[in-house]
Amino acid sequence: MESAIFGQAIREYFRPKRFIPWIVLAFGCLGIAYIWDTLQNGATKLESYSQVSSIFVFHVLALASAIFTTAIISQEIEQKTIVYLLTRPVPRWKLLVLRYLASAIVVSVIGIIFACLSSVGAYHGFGSNPLLAKDCVALIVGAFAYGALFLIISLMFNRAMIICLLFAFGWETMVPNMPGQMYYLSIYSYLQGIAQHPSTGTNKLLALLTSSGGDNTLTAGMSYGVMAVFVAALIGLGAWWFTNFEYLPREDAE
After folding, report:
1. In this structure, what DSSP letter does residue 253 have?
2. For the residues 156-162, what does the mean pLDDT come to?
């Protein structure tokens, strides 16, 4: 039964209607990366990829996570199918975790596709990109971290998508750029600690756009550890919350 639930969720998230638009956007990111060196007055291939990845790819990851993760429960409530979901002979916590894993995997795939196509664009082909492997790992970690946070938000609040989007494009843009140690409160900062992108130098606008204007000193090892604890804690809380609280169809969803 568990494998059936997981497989159904994967198939649902990979449906062409839901997945193909992300592929189209990824090719748009390829086009941006292709002309980035021109826009930035002769930036190197590595710089072009790093900047496009930081500005677009990691933020698209947060957007995709918000869309797919909030659909796990919020969409079921709004479409009034939550009752049918909960009648399955599977513990609630296991049902939630299986669907969360499916969404995190799909979001990881989307992020990796964006990163690979951005690399192709920046290098004008399949050149050797020393940042790509680290970025792919960081994107996978980010898919699980954003997913864990957005999942608990969707369990606790109605209209969770609004909160998730404000976090993805407001909090995650501003906090890493703040002085001092505020960057500890941003998932993006830990992902950059894993990816270890090169500095933008003295270009303050690029530093702002790439959310690297703060004093981020996070190492890869620390980032992995914090993100592991973060994900485990939030998934544990989410499993407990979903098990102990009732979820009914929203009558005002229409």
Report:
1. -
2. 87
61, 114 contact by CB (below 8 A): yes
Instruction: Please report, for residues 16, 49, 154, 243, 245, the alpha-carbon distance to residue 53 in angstroms, rounded to integers and kept in the order given.
Output: 25, 6, 27, 38, 39
Number of helices followed by number of strands (H, E) in the chain: 13, 0
Number of domains in the chain: 1
Residue 184 amino acid letter: Y
- Cα 211 from Cα 20, distance rounded (Å): 28
pLDDT at 163 over 80: yes
Give me the amino acid identity at 61: L
Tell me the residue type at 242: F
- % residues pLDDT > 70 (the chain): 90
pLDDT in tens, 123-155: 998 888 999 999 999 999 999 999 999 999 999
Angle at which helix 92-122 crosses helix 2-13, to 10 degrees, equals: 40
CB 62 within 8 A of CB 190: no
Evaluate whether residue 249 is within a structural domain. no
Range of the structural domain that residue 219 is part of? 2-244
Q: In this structure, are residues 113 and 140 in contact, taking their beta carbons and an 8 Å threshold? A: no
User: Using CA atoms, how far apart are residues 118 and 111, in angstroms rounded to an integer?
Assistant: 10
The answer to the question of residue 188 being in a domain is yes
